[in-house]
Design brief:
CATH superfamily: NAD(P)-binding Rossmann-like Domain
InterPro entries: KR_dom, NAD(P)-bd_dom_sf, SDR_fam, SDR_oxidoreductase
Number of helices: 9
Shape: globular
Oligomer: single chain
Strand content: 5-15%
Pfam families: adh_short
Helix content: 40-55%
Protein name: Oxidoreductase
Family: Belongs to the short-chain dehydrogenases/reductases (SDR) family.
Keywords: Oxidoreductase
CATH class: Alpha Beta
Radius of gyration: 19 Å
CATH architecture: 3-Layer(aba) Sandwich
Strand order of the largest sheet: 3-2-1-4-5-6-7
Order of helices and strands: EHEEHEHHEHEHHEHH
Largest sheet: 7 strands, parallel
Length: 271
């Protein structure tokens, strides 16, 4: 079969963690896979790696042009690139908050906008945006990160309605804690305040324990594959038992109980 007849998948942030595991799962499922990373990464297991900085529009456009030159099509886009930030919301400057949004939200927008003309011309396409359980619940000491994921949720659901008439669907995948190096590479607040030192340190422990007990990255990859291949996709796919439980609690329990449960989980005083 000619390579251009294979379904082509493009996944950002594919050099490690969820992105790499998902890229391998897509390749094993029969996709011709292109992954991106900010730094040069070796191609492996049939995955072609390309350099791309999702905060740089020229870099994004050059990367998409390269994929199209090699394949002539893009059938699936998985927007996975993202960064974290742990600390009190007050501890981050506006510039730091903007930088976070530039990767987690506007990075998705840039790559999506670069791919959409091709998908529209094809008359079909699937976009899977990696969100988080923190995209639908409060996240103390992750307020700015959670805000980016709430933004991704609103953007994705709205865009899905805009694109259905072109044969394109936009789907969310919402992981909970996942066993990757994401926690180790968290951004620290750029204007830390002593008043938050103790509770911030406690939240770091909560997150580390959550990651250590979290789902394997292939649980998320399986959810992405379902979202990518479903004939009639659901609006969102929670990835893993914890994320599913949190969504259930958020949807069906009274707000006061959810509030108390969230504070207990995060080892905050019940007030």
């Amino acid at each position: 079969m000619n390579s251009k007849e294979h379904a082509v998948a493009l996944i950002t942030g594919a050099s490690s963690g969820i992105g790499l595991v998902t890229a391998k799962a897509l390749q094993q499922a029969g996709y011709r896979v292109f992954g991106t990373s900010r730094k040069t990464a070796a191609c492996a297991d049939g995955i072609t790696m390309l350099n791309c900085d999702v905060t740089d529009e020229a870099s994004v456009n050059n990367m998409v042009t390269e994929v199209l030159q090699q394949t002539g099509r893009i059938d699936l886009l998985v927007n996975n690139a993202g960064v974290g930030l742990l600390g009190g919301a007050e501890e981050s400057s506006t510039a730091q908050a903007q930088a976070l949004f530039d990767v987690n939200v506007f990075g998705i927008t840039r790559v999506t906008n670069a791919v959409l003309p091709t998908m529209r011309n094809q008359g079909k396409g699937r976009i899977v945006n990696i969100s988080s359980a923190l995209g639908f619940i409060p996240a103390p000491y992750n307020a700015l990160y959670a805000a980016t994921k709430h933004a991704v949720e609103g953007y994705s659901e709205s865009l899905d309605h805009e694109l259905r008439s072109f044969g394109i669907r936009v789907v969310l995948v919402e992981p909970g804690y996942t066993r990757t190096a994401f926690e180790a590479s968290l951004t620290k607040p750029d204007q830390p305040l002593e008043v938050y030192d103790s509770v911030r340190a406690g939240m770091e422990v909560v997150m580390r324990n959550g990651v250590n007990a979290g789902d394997a990255a292939d649980v998320v990859a399986d959810a992405v594959l379902k979202a990518a291949t479903a004939t009639v996709p659901k609006r969102r796919y929670t990835a893993g038992k914890q994320a599913s439980q949190v969504r259930f609690l958020r949807r069906f329990l009274p707000e006061a109980l959810v509030d108390k449960s969230l504070r207990k989980f995060n080892q905050l005083p019940i007030a």
